[in-house]
Amino acid sequence: MNNMKQLQYKLRIVILSVILILGIKVISFAQDSTVSTVLLDLKYYVSDQQVPYVMVKTKTKKERKFLPVKGIPVSVYLNEESGASLLGKVVTNENGEGKIIIPASFKSIWDSSSAFTFKATSEPDGKTAALSGELTIKKARLVLDTLNEDGARSIRVTALEKNGNEWIPVKDVEVKIMVKRLLGDLPISETESYTTDSTGQVVGEFKRDSLPGDIKGNLILLARTEDNDLYGNLLVEKNCKWGTPLKDNNDAYNSRSLWGTRYKTPVWLLGIAYSIIVGVWGIIIFLVVQIFKIKKLGIEQKI
Amino acid sequence: MKNLTPLTADIITNNLVPQKFGKRGMIWTGVLVAFCIVGAYAYFLQLKNGLGVTAMRDYVSWGIYISNFVFFVAISLVGSLITAVFRLANVKWSTPLTRIAEIIAVSAIVFASLIIVVDMGRPERLLNLFMYGRLQSPIMWDVIVITTYLFISLLLLFFPLLPDLKILIKRKDLSVKSFGKFYSFLGSFWKGTRLQEKLNKRAVNILCVTIIPVAFCIHTVTSWLFATTYRPGWDSTNFGAYFISGAFLVGAGAVIVAMYVFRKAYALERYITELHFDKMGRIVVLLALLYLYFNVNEYLIPAFKMKNSEEAHLTDLFAGTYAPLFWFAIFTGMLVPIFILLFKRGRKPLPAFIAGVLVVVGAWFKRYLIVTPTLLHPFLPMTDVPESFKHYFPTWQEWAIALGSLAGALLIITFLPGYSPSSLYRKL
Hints:
The complex is a heterodimer. By secondary structure, chain A is of the alpha+beta class. Among the domains of chain A are: 38-138, Immunoglobulin-like (Sandwich), CATH 2.60.40.1940; 140-240, SoxY domain (Immunoglobulin-like), CATH 2.60.40. Helices cover 26% and strands 39% of the residues of chain A. Chain A starts with a helix and ends with a helix. In chain B, 45% of the residues are buried. In chain B, 73% of the residues lie in helices and 0% in strands. The longest helix of chain B is centred in the middle third of the chain and has 34 residues, at 194-227. In chain B, helix 3 packs across helix 10 and helix 5 crosses helix 10 (239-266). Chain B is globular. Chain B has one domain (21-377, 396-416): Formate dehydrogenase/DMSO reductase fold. Chain A binds chain B through residues 93-95, 183, 257-262, 265-266, 269-270, 273, 276-277, 280-281, 283-284, 286-288, 290-291, 293-295, 297-299, 301-302, and chain B through 132-136, 141, 144, 148, 151-152, 155, 158-159, 162, 188-191, 193, 195-196, 199-200, 202-203, 206-207, 210, 214, 217, 383, 387.
């Protein structure tokens, strides 16, 4: 009888556990299945070495996080939504991003204007509603100069805005000044960013002494704005011989080593490889000679 | 039980010399030739437009061509197993299978050499490898050892063929006519004198001893092409043994498939008997268990540690994009064949043939899994590469060339004389 009760008790615990697990699952699925709207963002990038481009980004908010939405077709227009103003069409990738480079056919409009509005639209499909986004940008650029006064190295960045046919300095622009490295950019000092003064300029002290450069000691300095409300993402780069020249590492290649040239093969490797090659190919040659011997025997037999 | 006529030399000759193709043979050959033509056209496009016609990019620079290469090299090892190892171990029952194994070995190594040239963007520079190659590079070791193995395999096919060539030349009426002159060129000098027999036997013995270390070298060096590279999935000290065990398995599987097909197509039930399927089935089980053991070592131990650098690669194989293919290869290439062949009934010709096909198919996909997923997960990812570089699926040109090469290897196996009547006389 006691056994029966124990069994019933265990059974209840199992059933309750199953209900609890299923309940948690249902709640978590319910949270997952909350439908979120897709957001369409636009970003503008221009540098002194590249054709300007617009980046569209589609994302959705899920569990207090923004997640990229891929596969959304987006059309981007300049100033107005018309066929003639279409800059291009793009389908967002798995990062929810799509890049549209300003076509060469827009050069004359581009050069003559001081401000633009980028308009992005996406047609509704079965899964997502119609999307639209807009970004107004004033044309601007950065100028980077290097200063070397009494051995103190510093970098001056000037922010200029286009006004009619003139470029005028602008204040209160937040700029980052960095050195380009292999896997990312390194700030030139502990200061994370600088803000231009009333002359549109900012000066940052270069504190990265003995930073390895290329073989001539060249470093790539750069200044940029990040998602500036008025000007977008501006970038300027400049080469400068402030790095420590890389030492020629040819010594490593001039000694006999596994990474050396073919004339610098280690002797032990040559010895092993050639003894194997000579040994095996010696046998092959011996066997080929045997074929000729067998052939000769056959011909003699014929005679 | 059928009352069979006792085998005589004449009956053996009549049964075993190559026959003219029937309707099925012609269709089979036609299909293979069609695959070869499409493959050749795809290669022409690749030569004309460059390797850009393939899906290989900066991430996956070794695609199905190299998978196919590793597969061919693996399957070519069967020559050394069936012919050399069994001969030196004085195994008698394998005699009717030796020629089949040698032909598979030769055709596979020929196409391994060709497919590596196909993988080159500038094949006309092949000679530069020999002229300016660095002996420090494992690729050079591979070039040397493949060339050596090709020559040894050809010699191992040729020497035992000499007595049979004499029969084929005599029986021109039965052989495929266009091959008559070829047979004469190869072996008209064979008279079967005692001295010729002695020289021939000695040559075969020397070859059997030589081919074993060379066969081990060829696949070990092929494994080192991967293992000497510091990448997830390849950074292993186990790779040589892992590759060789896999190679013997696929080779033995291929021999079972070929045994069944030759037996059916040419009615060779009296030469390739159920005993052969039983014995080969047992060998495949042993080799599959051995290969499974190495697989456990290769995948389970890194998965137990799950180092950050290997995690993406391993989870992609176990539960990610490549999981269906990975588990397909493990089940098809090892577990299911073991299950079939463990039982006596499973070692009858038809189930053994099915198990052999599964082994070969599983082995091809296993090679694909060794090569490609690793390349998609480098320790140091490249920056600013197009999204398409991070995925790989072969283009139709790659499929056509790979299938064309497989068809080419099958054509060689189809056309070369597959049996050795002379060695069977001696058993009478």
